[in-house]
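Morning F.,

Quick status update on the modeling queue. The single chain you submitted on Monday has been processed. Sequence for confirmation:
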Amino acid sequence: MVTQHGTKFAVHIITNHFGDRVAKVCECLLRRGPLNRQNIKRYTELSDEQVKNSLLVLIQQNCVQAFITEQSGGFGDEPRLNTQYVALFDNILHRVRFAKFLTIASQEFDKQCVELLQGLLEHGRLTLKQMFDRAKSSEKEGTSVVLDSVRESLFNLATAHYVERCPAPEPLLMAATEEETPTRKRGSKSSKLIEEPETIEQRAVAAAAPVEALRFSVISTDSDVHGEKNDSNSTSITLGEKRKHDALESDECGAADELTVLYRANFGEFIRRLRHKACIETVRVRLDDGAATVLGAMLEATRSAEQKVKTRNSVPLSLGSIYEEVIKSEAGRNMTLDHVKASLIQLGHPPLVKESNGSYSVEFEKIIELAQNDEMESVVLKKYGRDAYRIFRLLSKAGCLLETDKISRLLKRRIHQRFFTRCGRMITCIWRN
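Structure tokens below.
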């Protein structure tokens, strides 16, 4: 559930990027939940054309997802289809992280890939033809951009899961049954074992998502951007080989599909990369470079198996698999198997969990919690001083409420230490003089 401050921040982002009218529609969806166009028009008091254009902008920028629900008709009437719109809160917040996304891509790919990704972040959704036209319009004198190079850049970004195909525009959202949406009883001991029911936003996103086989695929055809055949590749069929008429039609359809398929940036993959980077740097600061190298190798090996952005544990890896992944990196080539074992012991429990079969998995929540505690301690220290920092650190480590007398005794010891330190300095100055 989106909090009040979260809603204000999201509306502030949309206002700065797209203006007050689009922000008004977005705020209506964030505060009231999924609505159809008529209700949005009624609550915002905007005209139908203004609501339509605002929704088109938000959908283009991946901030709103449309979906269809079935409504039972009257007696003897067939069910009616109702198109509703839901705001994607996480995608709105990701807009302030676009600079970080481009920094991550620039560390792995060339300039053309970064410019292609930048175009997707700016415009939300683009086809291959639109990417080619954008690259061609920005080309400098003496350089020429060809479709194959743009397609290759798109293929590289899609292979790294930084770019994906856009979801279905209006998927049919079936009504959730009681078995699919379990309720959590207050005070129940088994409440931790029962997952929270999915929200309408999560269900709409899941229903619109393309199948995994097509999500990161880029169509490769022998046609240029205008749909004309490339003579250099059209002779790839050997003489005497018969090609059916259906195959020719499918090739023409594939060439047309390539130019109409919409692509967008995959925010989830960038968030995973940022989370992995934060975990590695936290371990590096708390332990050493060796433990950070081992942790980074484990995260890199299991990255493709992470299906959700918010994952508690990584996929378990055996000691041999971890060592093979460690020596692939430049920093881990000098590490022996004993060094890897020592780093695994150093990581300890948690954030490293050792399974019963001897494999290891990373507990993300524990590392993120440690990083958040460090950040909060630094904020308390700068804003409220050393004594407040010691109180906060004591309470955060205890993880429970403490009596005031115990906290007071801690502060008294701190005051006494300061008093004796000052007295010792005074005595030293007097003796020297």
